[in-house]
TrEMBL record:
Protein name: Lipoprotein transmembrane
Organism domain of life: Bacteria
SUPFAM superfamilies, A to Z: Chalcone isomerase
Database matches in Pfam families: Chalcone_3
Keywords: Lipoprotein, Membrane, Signal, Transmembrane
Phylogenetic classification of the source organism: Bacteria, Pseudomonadati, Pseudomonadota, Betaproteobacteria, Burkholderiales
Signal peptide as annotated in the record: 1-27
Chain ranges of the Chalcone isomerase domain: 27-195
GO molecular function, one term: intramolecular lyase activity
Length: 197
């Protein structure tokens, strides 16, 4: 009888743990867009730092999730992190390549000083050309902007690499500031990516 009780308790504990693990696989649900609690980039497990929705004039444009080697809540701490990083954008509406490119440049201009922009001018130009080469982003598209140490900034659209690898970490940090800089693209998205809510 004791053995049966212990066996039942062990089974129950195992089931509860299994349920917890399954539930833990989804860390954030942003208006129906689900972000896993971890992502593997360059062989490393990254944790979801935060996720939120980018809106423009109350129109939902994309959900964004920031993955890091460990959770950080300031831009300076994120810039100092070693190891890979990932910013994931999941489109919730169609956006033309022209509109996306203009938003990218607007974000860079608002958050990156002239000297830094001059330093990364060729990389910024290549990034713009990359989006000019695709017809646009469609609802449901998934865009990953990855920093891979020893390689550079790698961009994937729906699992396929697009554009050239950009080798400078400073450039990746500059791009991240579009979303988490002093003048972010969306004032409510920044604290969400920094894990503030």
């Amino acid at each position: 009888m004791v053995t049966t009780k212990h066996g039942f308790k062990g089974l129950l504990a195992g089931l509860l743990l299994a349920c917890f693990c399954v539930q833990g696989a989804i860390a954030a649900d942003v208006n129906g867009v689900k972000f896993d609690d971890t992502a593997k980039v360059a062989g490393k497990d990254l944790v979801l730092n935060g996720a939120g929705m980018r809106t423009k004039f109350i129109i939902k444009v994309y959900a964004a999730g920031l993955y890091l080697t460990e959770k950080k809540n300031t831009v300076a701490d994120i810039a100092r992190l070693e190891g890979p990083r990932r910013l994931t954008l999941v489109m919730v509406r169609d956006v033309s390549s022209e509109d996306f490119g203009q938003s990218f440049m607007s974000g860079i201009n608002s958050n990156v000083g002239d000297a830094e922009k001059a330093k990364y001018a060729s990389q910024i130009s290549k990034f713009g050309e990359m989006f000019g080469a695709i017809p646009g982003l469609k609802k449901g598209d998934v865009l990953h902007l990855d920093w891979i140490p020893g390689s550079g900034t790698v961009t994937e659209l729906n699992g396929k690499k697009i554009g050239e690898v950009v080798p400078d970490l400073g450039y990746y940090n500059a791009v991240l500031r579009i979303w988490i800089g002093d003048k972010p693209a969306d004032g409510s998205l920044k604290p969400a990516l920094l894990g503030a809510r």
